[in-house]
Amino acid sequence: MSISVTINGGKTARLTGLVTALLFLIVCISWGTTWLGIKIAVESVPPLTSAGLRFLIAFPLFLAFAWMRRESIFFPRQRFGFFVFVTVCYFSLPYYLLNYGEHYVASGLTALLFSTMPVFILIFSGLFLRERIYLSQVIGIAIGFASLFMIIKTQGLHLAYSELSGVFAILLAAVMHALCYVITKQRGVGISVITFNTLPIGIAGLGLFLAGLLIEHPGLAAVTSRSWAALAYLGLAASVGGFIVYFFLLKRLSPVVLSFVFIIFPVFAVFIGAWYEGMPISPNMLRYTLLLLAGFAITKLPLERLLNTRG
């Protein structure tokens, strides 16, 4: 009987591991295709309006999840300031900046630019949370950003104001997301994931959409079916589906392992974007991309910490 239990337990463990690996791959693909989805959406929908519609599509599903799990969508009253911060600095401004940036920057490069976000988390954690930053992490940051500079140069983004403004918009979105993650470590304790996302997404979506109507005057009748399909994908698959699977995995994998999603999804984004946009990947582009991701990987696995653990 004990042998039977051991065999069944082994099969269950292997099946669980297989499902976990599959879900990890789904998150990488989902987030890797997000950037192409944004690129297609902004083909016929202006940035503010596009970001707002994406969240308005996602909001009812988040409400449904909150209702099914019987969780409140309201932040605690004493954290109203934190609620405003999340709504503005995690959802509203960064997603407008991403949509704006993709008007001028290829989707694969956008993903690479945004993959700097965990590095900014590391920097802000050192500044605000007094977490230790190792020398190897500093070297990894230097390698990563040097490679990113060479990628931008390789892509021909030299002096054109619109292209450079797109690059800076995407980097600023990564900085704001990183800051929000770090502040959430301080202020977001005890707030469930569904509460954290639902109402901010709804308010951000409505605010961005109304701002788009006032500022951009979008002709919604002229929106192509491709852009509508991309918005539906972004709202349902990327925002809701990717969110659910990611936080499901967060309970089953260590944060360090799961954080490698940010290293892997840009690879999918680069190849998918190059295929869709008909842009060949040059050997230099591939070389610098791998070097950039390797540099950022070092920031997640500092050699000093690994040596101390083994010792």
Automatic annotation (TrEMBL):
Segments forming domain EamA: 21-152, 165-298
At the top level, the lineage of the source is Bacteria
Cellular localization per UniProt: Membrane
How does the entry describe its membrane topology?
Answer: Multi-pass membrane protein
Q: Name one GO cellular component term.
A: membrane
Membrane-spanning regions, if any? 12-32, 52-68, 80-98, 104-127, 134-152, 164-184, 196-215, 227-249, 256-276, 288-307
Name the predominant localization. membrane
Keywords on record: Membrane, Transmembrane, Transmembrane helix
PANTHER family cross-referenced by the UniProt entry: INNER MEMBRANE TRANSPORTER, PROTEIN PAGO
Q: Give the protein's recorded name.
A: Multidrug transporter
